[in-house]
Design brief:
elongated; mainly alpha
């Protein structure tokens, strides 16, 4: 183990700033209707007032055409409100078509979000349902990668790079490089001579610079799309 130097201290600061990127793209999630049924039938642990109310709504048959119409209408309003943006205009049109064609299915996604995430805002529930709708109908959207953005009432936003048909995306490549740089920095901090040679220090400096560069690249990518979407 190499000795603690000013370089390794700087590396520690950089590592403490690193947040692992969240990639929902490869999640395998149960069917929304099945998850709601599990909630209604007591299949999930813990009860809360929000969960109980959500289950009661579903169990009492309120998730019917009227409920579906309300959720679908709210989603269509959201899509046209400027809170949703996409790098490809066809994405919005496809979403509107899918929501309109099967409003009950979309309502199930929205109600799943509300039932499993107590306190979630309506806009957040709709945004998550839209993301899930894209994932589960990926073949109906552009084959190439595209970017979508969601803006929320609290001023926050979420920018997501949907991969192309082969699972590749610019943001994914940036994240992969960033993860590799984190691993390289950890390796550099754990190897070397006990006294910490000049060569060891140089490797640490290179690793820190590479990690800082990949952090900057990810931030620049996100800023580019926030600016493009007016977020």
């Amino acid at each position: 183990m190499m000795s603690i130097s000013s370089t390794s201290s700087a590396a520690l600061i950089v590592l403490q700033q690193v947040q692992a990127p969240v990639d929902r793209g490869n999640d395998t999630k149960p069917n929304a209707v099945d998850k709601i049924a599990a909630i209604v039938n007591g299949g999930t642990g813990g009860d809360s007032p929000e969960r109980t109310r959500a289950a009661a709504r579903i169990n009492s048959g309120l998730l019917d055409a009227q409920q579906a119409k309300g959720d679908a209408s709210a989603a269509l309003t959201y899509l046209e409100s400027g809170k949703f943006k996409s790098s490809d205009p066809s994405v919005k049109q496809t979403l509107k078509m899918l929501i309109s064609e099967d409003s009950e299915r979309f309502a199930a996604l929205v109600e799943e979000e509300k039932a499993t995430k107590p306190g979630i805002t309506n806009d957040n529930a709709i945004a998550n349902a839209i993301y899930s709708l894209i994932e589960s109908n990926r073949e109906q959207f552009p084959a190439g990668e595209f970017v979508i953005g969601f803006r929320f009432a609290n001023g926050g936003s979420n920018i997501i790079n949907m991969p192309d048909a082969n699972g590749n995306s610019t943001r994914g490549a940036l994240s992969a490089r960033h993860s590799a740089n984190i691993a390289a920095l950890i390796t550099a901090s754990e190897t070397g001579t006990p006294e910490g040679s000049a060569s060891d220090d140089g490797k640490m400096q290179d690793a820190v610079r590479s990690l800082q560069a990949s952090m900057s690249d990810q931030a620049a990518w996100t800023k580019r799309w926030r600016d493009a979407f007016g977020f």
